[in-house]
Amino acid sequence: MQFILASNNKKKLKEMGDILALEGCTVISMNEAGVTSDPEENGLTFEENALIKARSAMMASGRPCIADDSGLAVDALGGAPGVFSARYCEGTDLDRTMFLLKNMEGVEDRRARFVSAVACAFPDGSSIVVRGECEGEILRELKGEGGFGYDPVFYVPSEGCTFAEMPAERKNEISHRARAMVRFCEELRNKRNEE
Asked: Which DSSP state fits 164?
């Protein structure tokens, strides 16, 4: 089965593609599929936004579309930046990360989690929506060169490093998106068995 990813993010495409390949599935970007879709992400949860993106791309293409809505939820900030993680402030990933660190100045409780909701919309009107989380804490400075987004300040105590310091293979095993994708693959197998 081939899915269109309701995104043109190359890193997200690779990460999700690697996991779905284990299920014998392939994933292509909207650009590769010749699909244009840019819905307003006005959901209040990661799940709602993922489903909005998946349904919009499916309506534009008529093919199964998968979408991820993910972000960082920091306990001391009441769950912020949350669904606004990619729009936490104007600018680049680094600008948003530095804004987060500024907002965390003097804060002792550094607990946080990355959250990923993965949704798939099928042409028959059915859908799959799952959630994965990875617990960690926010460092006071950037560490590591890998990953993207808030990865350089997201420290995973059980791994002894940030997402940005972690080998991609390991991140693909333990990340919020990896955990959501494991659940998605389980749901996909169930759906296939029912057909």
From this structure: T
